[in-house]
User: Fold these one by one.
Assistant:
Number 1:
Amino acid sequence: MKKKKTLRPEGNPIVRFIRNNTVPIMFVLICAVCIPLSGFSPSYLLNEIVTRMGRNIFLILCLLIPIMAGMGLNFGMTLGAMAGEIALIFVADWQIWGIPGVILAMILSIPFSILLGLLCGKLLNMSKGREMITSYIISFFINGLYQLVVLYMMGPIIPIKHFSIKLPRGYGIRNTVSLLNMRQVLDNALSVTIAGVKIPILTFAIIAVLCLFVTWFRKTKLGQDMRAVGQNMEVARAAGINVERTRLISIVISTVIAGFGMIIYLQNMGNLSTYSSHSQIGMFCIAALLVGGASVDKANIGNVFLGVILFHTMFIVAPSAGAKITGDSMIGEYFRVFISYGVITVALVMYEAKKRRAKSLAGHKLAQDQLTEDKEAAQ
Amino acid sequence: MKKEPKDNNWSPSKLNDEMNSVLSTPEASPLQMAQMSPLRRLVASFGLPRLIITAFLLLMFIAAPFTGSDFWTQVSNTINRFSWNAVLVLAMVPMIHSGCGLNFGLPLGIISGLLGATMAIEFGFTGPVSFFMAIVISTPIAIVLGMGYGWLLNKIKGGEMMIATYVGFSSVSFMCMMWLLLPYKSPTMVWGYAGKGLRTTISLEGFYDKVLANFLQINIGTLSIPTGTILFFALLAFLMWAFLHTKTGTAMTAVGSNPAFAKAAGINIDKTRMLSVVISTWLAAVGILVYQQGFGFIQLYMAPFYMALPAVSAILIGGASVNKASIANVVIGTFLFQGMVTMTPTVMNSIIQMDMSEVIRVIVSQGMILYALTRKTKGGNN
């Protein structure tokens, strides 16, 4: 054997820390350069970040459970987002606004989410080992079905009455559905303003409840099963865990959370772009999670919070910082898109490379054990 | 150290036999086929989704004259679109053969083509020469990018498709910045008022607009066939077919269908995979140039973003799977897919008075990819 790799950890703890947290450190540096260049005041920046935290964290938390079950980054969270949007369209049609509207939309989204989650989970069970690309394509496929339903069936088949959301031609939903009457109802209830920064207490309380749920869920029997499945499907199966069912449940839970998250997201935005709100949401959530230092097989709540703060700081300051540096505001826009995709690419490459290294390491170890056994047998 | 067990009876003919048994299709055996009913047999050999799509397309062609649209115009449109896209679909073949899966990273190759195209115009070439020069310039770029891409894919065997997708996305968004920053000067390409930064669409009039299509073009009534483009595709397809039957090509197929066997037969797996990625990237570069000469415009910035998906679904509709593809799959798939794209808007519009073509296209093409991904594949390294 020419090359011999061992699991020996690097001696220097600082080097190890940097190596394990490359992406967050890189982002801290980018933000440190861009913030002064952008020229935004600290209170504006803080306000924006707090708003975006309230808007996005719930959505991103939905990614944690499939990662626990070893199914990688759930690009199929878009399905939950679509379920949430369908629920919101109905609620808007019935003209139920305010907090009751938000709650009704959440309840209404559950059956859609479960249905889509079951479909997604079933398909992912049929394509073990390439869950991510499959969930990614599923999101496109269901987007087609979503358009079919929303653009053609809403009106003639599914009753939609209110003229304000229906297209003038008589069927289909308008490009934007105004949610002005429920805009930031969750955020404004119980909000406090400290030093010019509005803190949406109720939204954060809801997020805290979900965080508690995720932490608690990890410790339940089902949560333990999921971690076992995530570590090794075959071993889990031998231990009597129903692998397929466990994976299915993890996707369903994730989809339902994504549905709720999308409703929280949209009540903050105040309007629903019927055909495009969900299309980029998966990418941004996943990028934010990865920026927080998560990897494809390991993520926790801390990653979510750190990720949202770093990613969205970059997102806010990049366009104006880019304009200052190059004199062209488009550069910054493209730069932040490039960074989002780049981060996901790097995280995926690191994960796959690590997986392969672990595999070859296990192979080497097996070969070595065999050799020593052979020697012992010969003696 | 233990020595590798050596097979003394090794001979080339034996290798061939083994290779054939390894490469033989895992589908129904002749005996099983004989026991099926004729309909089941057809479904088994042709694949249910492909059958449905073919039937759908046939129905469209039959319905076309009744809806008032001219039949031959429709056929010409289909053939035209086929000729634009076929090379891009052909680019899928080598990577499927070498077991790298579906090349969702096609945008990387497309970018090489775009660089070649814009540079050819920047350097002042015009007319048919500019097309040739675009290919010449994009070739080294495609080779370099393809080698980097292949190196990356060799590092992450088993997870190629997802990473390929994101390599494509990152490279497109990176080039978005570059199109603005690179020092292009040609007044036909840069924004008029700023004097820098490339336009989102660049007209090819005076450069290589329809250079291939107009070569030996056949016009009979309303039917027109872009012979040159089709001949160009046929040439590339023939070269690909011939390549797959050379020693290197067979080795590539072996790497894709059974890596362990290929390794035992002394094939350098990483090198073979790298070669397949480079060929695929180069074909994507040429493919986008062919597309542009038919379409008449260069599209920059976010345009290449989702270009991989139609090509992927076209080859799958043609009957390829995640690790098996032939030239026939390319031809059939591109024709069916493009036929669907051209026919549905006109026919559907006049039948049900609403334009559902876009939605149908999305559902069919993504459904097809999904179908291929969820099917159990034999061999491969998954």
Number 2:
Amino acid sequence: MTPPPVEESLVRFENVSRFYGEVLGVNRVTLAIPPGITSLVGPNGSGKTTLMNLMTGLIRPTRGSVRILGVTPEDPEKLFALVGYSTQFDAFPKGLSGFQFIYSFLRLFGWPREKCERLSWRAIGRVRLNDAAHRKIAGYSKGMRQRIKLAQAIAHDPRVLVLDEPLNGLDPLVRAETIALFRELAAEGRHVIVSSHVLHEVDLISDQVILLSNGYVVAEGKIQGLRSEICDHPMQILIRCNRPAALAARVFELDSIVEARLHADGGGLLVKTRDAGRFYRLLNHIALDGIDIESVAPADDNVNSVYEYLIGGEEPGK
Amino acid sequence: MAVYKRTYKGYSGALTAAWSRFLILPRYSFGRLFQSKFLVLFLMACFFYPAGCAVFIYLSHNLSFLRVLNVQAANLLEINANFFYIYCTVQATMAYLLTALVGPGLVSPDLVNNALPLYFCRPFSRSEYVAGKMSVLIYLLSLITWIPGLILFLMQSSLAGRSWIFANWWIAEAIVVGSLVWIGVLSLIAMAMSAWVKWRIAAGALILGVIFVGAGFGRALNAVMRIRGGAMLDLAQDSFTIWSALFRLPGAGQDIDTLDAVNAIAAACLICLWLLFKKVRPFEVVK
Amino acid sequence: MIAKYWAQMRAVVRLEMKKTFLSRRGLWVYLLAFAPVLMFAGHDLSMMRTREERRAIAAAHPVPAGALLSIQPGMTREEVIARLGEPNVDSRQIRFGGGRIRREFLSYTDGQSRYVFGFADGELQSISVREEETFAQDRLIFATVFQFFFLRLAIFFGCVGIFTNLFRGELIDKSLHYYLLAPIRREVLLAGKYAAGLIAAVAIFTASAALQLWLLSLPYESSLSGHEISAYLGVAALACLGYGSVFLAAGLFFRNPLLPAAGVLIWESANLFLPSALKKISVIYYLQSLCPVVASPHREINPVLALLISSTEPASTILAVAGLFAVTAVVLVFASRRARRLEINYGAD
């Protein structure tokens, strides 16, 4: 099979706005999301779920257009063959067991019984719920309900997986297994679009992040790239060396250095600079002057810092 | 052993008096209810008929106006027990529709959201809860039934003179007692349905259905079984029978015996109370 | 493509069926549907018991029918007893006016009818004959109960319960999005849900109507014609079809479908009093036109209101059936347009 053309491998938002009456959902969002794991990060009410609902046609944009791999959400027959969505709603059709839930909704695809059964068991196996498959969902724990929702979203083998807070309620072991599953799915070339408020997990799993605040996209891209583009905040760099005090005296030769702090263990120096490029060039000279430098690493190119810098004092959450 | 600092201190301020604690519930219920524009409009519509009656009473005593219209006062509908009986039946219908709108939202949201334990872990009893929720309906329904009814009665009394009030004081009693019977029945049905059917829409349909279906089934039962007692299932008919007796109308007790009507209403109220107390409790049996 | 739509519709019906037939929430629909069955069963039992009792009494104490007919008002108690013998059914005595007037009722039966002779101070004043119920009477009563209770109230409220639940119930339960996230046209989803509701409603209400018809003819040797039976069952099914579409649409268009339901109830109840042209804009007009026996509720209605009743020629069978299908189709088309634009915003429900 030939790979799809580039246009068809992106999830695109073109100048999308959505208002709920007079309340802003998202405003002027333009995005092109490539395959891999993409995390939507932002405080409560920033528009993460709205973006996901727009992607899946559960709500329509007030302005602009959304296309998922070239398909519009107005065309559910094509769209939902490509997309699986695990929503934030912790509700299920009444009276169904885990297996019946996945099987019954697979039958809506118009597929034969055998195929639906096979796909249901495969999805249930991927979230490790085989033993509980014939129990009623009403008796499941929060974590099991989260996993059965995930199984339902992946059961039809979608190319785009949209997951609203999929790690909520999972214990550490299952959380690790689920993250591994996301990686596996992303490695197969799928889009895995996740919203989460656990920032260190976002850091661990994401290929790219989209930061949202008050309905606007405030940043998007790979974390490291994002950090280097934020000029307002000095970048933090940790230098491990044998003489941190001597190093501290030298770094102030540059006027772009804002702060230099000895590391608590005495074996390093934490430097804040407004111009990382000039600082790295200076470091080459210092190394030649007899200070043994073991390692140089950015100390704040993670989601947490980016979030902190861009969204600041807003409450991190959903 | 863990030792914790004892920093928590319970509330030690003044408490709302026990007898008036149930009035806290309607305060919040009204706030929520009047957010609905439809409800406000409907409530306003409930005053159209009393306003019309007031105008009619005024005009029927305004001789110069009647002279302009060339109408004899005797030709107009007489302001008597029958006039107030008709007033009560019209307002009772509005009260019924208002109950179907307001009633379903009284208990069911607390049950759906598992809020009852929050009420009952405070110094608040089940009876106070029921009284508090019921008072929402009692206030609203009183506002459109006996209160304007009494105002109309007083208006007629002031216009017709002292002799009229001495001869007809029992009409005021009939307006108040008849309306309170109807309000009591409607409130209890609404509360019971709201407690048993968590889905508000179904509860509303049941409130409508209990009266309509009860009436229809009662008549069907009379026809099929060749009896008269089926009419007792028609709670509206029962109430109208009691009103007819209270308003001393000639046809009182024609379809159903007044005592049978009283018994039917009392039985319906007891069943509703039983249903209510079965459901309103600080725990829920999860199956 | 059509095969795929059928498969998808069947899948929706399968999912909905259990919910519609077996949910605890829907138990009251069964109660509503089968209450008339209990009523007719009670009637049959009481009628058969009375009939047996009368025949047994008449056999033990025979009273000639001619003698019973010869009794005239003005006769004394003793004269009546001389002609008919001691009363063979329970009789009673009542005193009025502080015991001054003595009323006495003597009851006899010839095995079929019950005769009650009312005496005041020993003189015959009233003769009341309660004849044995006939199939013709019960047929008319059934027609009245069917049209004024079963169609207007039982099926009406049953359809409110079943059909508004299909979309609005799922919106309230926050589970509709699972359907909207499947690769299925919203029109197919709507058709599937409507079909599921219709199957349930038709099964419940036609089963009840069939049982009522069976119980109606059980105590008699005669029974309704096949045409009449099929007409009643057909009307019950068409009522589900018509009301079902209306309430499915109400569940889609209104956050609180109770308001339109109350509106429709008032409109349908007022149908008797509406002018001829307006009568035709209602489901009940077409349903009543299809009923094999004309039932009149006029005896039950207040004489003042009875003056307001307007009579209209019933619609022909073809027109009535076509009219109901047309109304259903139009309502479903509007509902499907609404379903296409439906968004999930559970917070608002």
